[in-house]
Amino acid sequence: MRGTLTVFAGPMFAGKSARLLQSASLDAATLCLSPAFDTRSGASIHSRTGLTHPARPVSAWPDDAGAYRHLLLDEAHFMVAPHYRGDVVDDIRNALSQGVTISVAGLDTDYLREAFDVMTRLRGCADRFVSLKARCHCCGSPARWTAKKRRTGHKLEAGDDDLYEARCDAHWSAPEGA
Ligand SMILES: Nc1ncnc2c1ncn2[C@@H]1O[C@H](COP(=O)(O)OP(=O)(O)O)[C@@H](O)[C@H]1O
Ligand SMILES: Cc1cn([C@H]2C[C@H](O)[C@@H](COP(=O)(O)O)O2)c(=O)[nH]c1=O
After folding, report:
1. Is 29 strand, coil or helix?
2. Is residue 88 part of a domain?
3. How many domains is the chain partitioned into structurally?
4. Which of 9, 26, 53, 165 could form a disulfide with 108 if both were Cys (CB 3.0 to 4.6 A apart)?
5. Measuring from atom 7 of ligand 2, which residue has the nearest CA?
6. pLDDT tens track for 128-173
7. Does ligand 2 have an atom closer than 6 angstroms to the CB of 18?
8. Is 84 part of any domain?
9. Do the annotations mark residue 164 as ligand-binding?
10. 4 CA to middle of ligand 2, Å?
11. Domain residues for 72?
12. Residue 34 within a domain
């Protein structure tokens, strides 16, 4: 029987990692994966709520994935070339067809409000898609965007509130010079 796919998407600070960790029993039948590219969180899935769990840093689909009942993938927007070998969406589809249940979290859009293709494609094959919002750093209202505080020239760049803020429609802006 095909496994089911749940996708948690939204801007930074929206609670995606927290919801991801709450979506499975964190026992020996569950494998957590994080992108090797994100050295910030190390070998763990970490939520700012304080929830945290060990994860295997990956730059390709793990050979033993089929041995687990449930896979959790955080920061899926990072699982793209040159930081990931292959196509993570195809890898997920294959694992689903082998009966593995999968939950994924990632940014739906970048700091310029452009869609992350991997997340758009995952939405297309999700059995359950959960769209989350943060609170706007400027006014506290629901925020569906992430703003970058300064221009660095990188679309993919690990960072926290030193570099990024959640913003509502009214307060989002591109970094100067972008
Ligand atoms: N601007 C913000 N909006 C909402 N929550 C925030 C904000 N800044 C910090 N937080 C905290 O971060 C938590 C969500 O963290 P986390 O699970 O790491 O989110 P995500 O994985 O989406 O970045 C919230 O429950 C709240 O405690
Ligand atoms: C907006 C944006 C973010 N990133 C990076 C910054 C963080 O390391 C992660 C998101 O982490 P979170 O768990 O959702 O808080 O992604 C990026 O590389 N590019 C961007 O445009």
Report:
1. coil
2. yes
3. 1
4. 9
5. 158
6. 999 999 999 999 999 999 999 999 999 999 999 999 999 999 999 9
7. no
8. yes
9. yes
10. 26
11. 5-133
12. yes
